[in-house]
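[recover] target loaded
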């Protein structure tokens, strides 16, 4: 697979023509297991609290998903990965990537994510 990433004036924020091109980059921005687990934990905790609140008629609990989800994910990027969240440059695709990454983790495919990340980083750094 060839890299079709296009550099921009800010070399840390490449552009992509499709989600399929973006996906390996997204995974590479989550190259460390601890970062991926912070995403999984924050997202599932936020979902659980949001679902509980909505089931109890407390709509404000829906805010738990973005607050807890991003509140755990973003610091993991800064302190574990030492990068900026892909959400800052590609919010829609990042949300889709997060869903795909978490689905793979729940299916026991975390090692595969590590391999995708290592491959992208080896080809692009």
């Amino acid at each position: 697979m060839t890299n079709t990433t296009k550099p921009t004036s800010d070399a840390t924020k490449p552009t992509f023509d499709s989600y399929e091109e973006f996906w390996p980059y997204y995974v590479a921005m989550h190259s460390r297991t601890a970062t991926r687990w912070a995403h999984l934990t924050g997202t599932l905790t936020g979902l659980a609290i949001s679902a509980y609140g909505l089931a109890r008629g407390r709509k404000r609990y829906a805010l738990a998903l973005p607050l807890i989800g991003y509140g755990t994910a973003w610091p993991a990027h800064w302190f574990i990965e030492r990068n900026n969240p892909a959400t800052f440059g590609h919010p829609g695709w990042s949300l889709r990537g997060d869903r795909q990454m978490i689905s793979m983790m729940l299916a026991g495919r975390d090692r595969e994510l590590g391999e995708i990340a290592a491959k992208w980083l080896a080809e692009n750094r």
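[recover] notes: The helical segments are 19-28, 33-55, 64-81, 91-106, 110-124.
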